[in-house]
Each structure stands twice: as structure tokens, then as C-alpha cells.
Backbone:
């Protein structure tokens, strides 16, 4: 079932159907910040946000969920969308880091030994694919103890102390509660989040344009 987390502007949006925007977990903070501003100017239509892993969101779209815009964490995910694509734009560069409990000291991937609980995203989702690319680039094998479905799950388990080290996007390593950035992937290990418009509707197109511009700015990309 498609679960929606509504972000609605104050005032009367009336009984207009909301614009449904599904957002990959890695862009949660960005879209929670920018959506109320866009919602106030995007033709008066309310915007509902639906957060989850890219693969989960795509499965929802491909099985008929009423989604107008979807933001996924890499081009492979965007290419897996079966619905008609009206437009797609890069909204973020995704760089990978390893976060760790404060008492864990690692200087390179080879330090992640069997004594540590190391977790990552499943290789079927974008953050997992990027983690594997990092291992390949480093020509290193890392024993992963648990595979999660999105980066927010990885971050939460490291912060809670359930895991010693986890691989997440740099954007997800901001404002860590009880974890630190231990390792940073080389620059060439990078993916891009893609915003995809699925509905040919004037209000959706306007909201898409504004969301893309705001997301790119928030993520440090030039217009």
C-alpha cells in the first residue's frame, strides 16, 4: 500500500487532488525543507510526499500507484520506471561515506574486520550498488553482516549502536547523533539522484520545475 506523508500549506487548498511526489530516502531532508515553499506557489495544489527506498518507490509506480513525480537515487533506478516519462532532471550528486560508532577507528576499508558489525544497503538498491562500486574501486572485499533496503535504515542502525560501521550517502551523514564519518569514497565513486515527472499536467509540470530548481540549489548544484 502506498503510504503518504502529507506536507500541506496553511489555508484552503480546497478539495483539489494533491500532487503526489515519491522521494528516495536519501533526499528526505531536502524535500521536507523545500516542499512547503514550492507548495505555496505551485498553482495552489497541495503536495503529498511519500518517502522510501528507490526500488520500493519504483515498484509502487510500476504496480499502478498514483504518483506524479518520483525522485530516485541513480539512473539505473530511473530507467526501471515502466510508466510514461515526461521529463527527468538530475537533482543531486551522491557521494558515499562510511559512518561509524565514535569508538570505532578505521583508516581504510581493509580495517573493517570480522570483529566489527558492518552493514550496507542491499545491492538491488542504488546505495548498495554504489557501495559495491567502492569495493571494486578499492579492490577490497568487505564482509557485510546485514543488508538494508535504504540508507536511512543503515544510518539509524549505526546511530542506535546496533552496528559499528555503515555505508551511506554523504547527505545522510549530516547532523549525526551518535556516529562519525570514518571513511570517504573516492570522487569517481558517485551516482546522481534523478527527478522524474510522470504526469502530463500543467500544475505538476510547474511543481516539478520548482522542486527541481530548489533541490538542485539545496544540493549544491548549479541551476
Residues:
Amino acid at each position: 500500500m502506498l503510504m503518504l506523508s502529507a506536507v500541506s500549506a496553511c489555508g484552503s487548498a480546497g478539495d483539489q487532488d494533491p500532487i503526489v511526489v515519491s522521494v528516495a530516502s536519501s533526499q528526505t531532508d531536502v524535500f521536507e525543507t523545500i516542499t512547503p515553499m514550492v507548495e505555496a506557489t505551485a498553482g495552489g495544489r497541495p503536495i503529498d510526499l511519500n518517502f522510501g527506498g528507490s526500488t520500493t518507490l519504483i515498484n509502487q509506480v510500476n504496480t499502478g500507484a498514483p504518483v506524479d513525480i518520483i525522485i530516485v537515487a541513480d539512473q539505473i533506478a530511473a530507467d526501471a520506471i515502466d510508466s510514461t516519462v515526461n521529463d527527468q532532471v538530475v537533482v543531486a550528486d551522491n557521494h558515499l561515506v562510511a559512518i561509524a560508532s565514535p569508538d570505532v577507528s578505521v583508516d581504510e576499508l581493509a580495517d573493517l574486520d570480522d570483529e566489527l558489525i558492518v552493514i550496507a544497503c542491499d545491492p538491488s538498491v542504488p546505495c548498495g550498488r554504489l557501495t559495491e562500486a567502492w569495493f571494486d574501486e578499492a579492490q577490497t572485499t568487505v564482509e557485510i553482516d546485514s543488508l538494508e533496503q535504504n540508507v536511512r535504515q543503515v544510518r539509524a542502525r549505526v546511530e542506535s549502536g546496533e552496528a559499528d560501521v555503515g555505508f551511506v550517502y554523504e547527505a545522510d551523514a549530516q547532523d549525526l547523533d551518535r556516529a562519525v564519518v570514518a571513511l570517504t569514497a573516492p570522487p569517481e565513486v558517485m551516482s546522481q539522484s534523478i527527478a522524474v515527472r510522470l504526469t502530463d499536467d500543467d500544475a505538476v509540470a510547474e511543481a516539478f520545475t520548482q522542486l527541481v530548481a530548489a533541490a538542485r540549489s539545496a544540493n549544491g548544484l548549479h541551476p
